[in-house]
Every structure is written in structure tokens, then in C-alpha cells.
Amino acid sequence: QVQLVESGGGLVQAGGSLRLSCAASGLTFSSSTMGWFRQAPGKEREFVAAITWNGGSTYYADSVKGRFSISRDNAKNTAYLQMNTLEPEDTAVYYCGAGRKLIGRAIVGGTSWYDYWGQGTQVTVSS
């Protein structure tokens, strides 16, 4: 049984930082591209960042470039999203997804390519 468990969300003031974690089990993590997406109330789920299975490529939405950083530790079956200089517009539920060997911005940015999803973690940025 595949499980993705996000953690690290919370309430932070604008300009602050949070680090999200996504712990995976039941899948071959080292063959899985990991993506972070977010969904604000009344909006569709949107791409935030992704990292390929070997960490060789990373992708970011324009809105988070230079502020967020995605990484992974295959020994710990965990992906991370370091979020700096947070803005109120970053408020959303953040989800991690896993898809086998996804590569290319057009692919990793699409929710339909991911096979598994976590339950999400709430990030709230106050102004």
C-alpha cells in the first residue's frame, strides 16, 4: 500500500519560512519523480515544484522561483519543499505527488501524470 504523508505546514507571517516534508512508503521512491502542488479555496490544484527520481532535474512554477527549493533524500524516502519569503498568496493546502520517472516541465506540471497523492498539509501566511 502506497502512502505519501506530508508534514511541516502551519501558520507563518509574511516573509517567514517553512519546510514541508513528504514521507513515502510502499513504492520505489528512487524511481519516482516527486511533485509539490497546492490548492487554495475555490481554485484548482496548481503546480509548485518537482524533482526527478535521481534529483537530476528540478522544476518550479514562476510564482515560486527564487523563493522555494525542492530536494529529496532517497535514503530516507522523503522529499522536501523549503519555502522562504512566504507571501499571503502562498496560502493553500500543499500536496505531494509521486509518478514513475516523470520528466519534462509539461509532464511534471500536470496532476494527471501522478499516480499517488498525499492528504495535504495546510500552509497559512498572514500579512
Concise description?
The protein has 127 residues and is mainly β. It is built from one helix and eleven strands.
Structure description:
The protein is mainly beta. Helix content is 3%, strand content 50%. The chain contains one helix and eleven strands. The chain has one helix at 105-108; strands at residues 3-7, 10-13, 18-25, 32-39, 46-51, 58-60, 68-73, 78-83, 92-100, 116-117, 121-126. Strands 2, 4, 5, 6, 9, 10 and 11 form a seven-stranded mixed β-sheet that branches. Strands 1-3-8-7 form a four-stranded antiparallel β-sheet, with no helix packed on it. Strand 7 and strand 8 form a beta hairpin. The longest helix has 4 residues, at 105-108. The radius of gyration is 13 Å and the shape is globular. The N and C termini lie far apart (40 Å). The model has no long low-confidence stretch (mean pLDDT 97).
Strand and helix layout:
Blueprint: E1 3-7, E2 10-13, E3 18-25, E4 32-39, E5 46-51, E6 58-60, E7 68-73, E8 78-83, E9 92-100, H1 105-108, E10 116-117, E11 121-126
Parallel strand pairs: 2-11
Antiparallel strand pairs: 1-3, 3-8, 4-5, 4-9, 5-6, 7-8, 9-10, 9-11
Rg calc: 13 Å
**Structural class given helices, strands, pairing?**
mainly beta
Strand-and-helix sequence, N→C?
A: EEEEEEEEEHEE
Uncertain stretches of 5 or more adjacent residues? none
Distance between the termini: 40 Å
Q: Which percent bin holds the helix content?
A: under 10%
User: Strand portion, in percent?
Assistant: over 45%
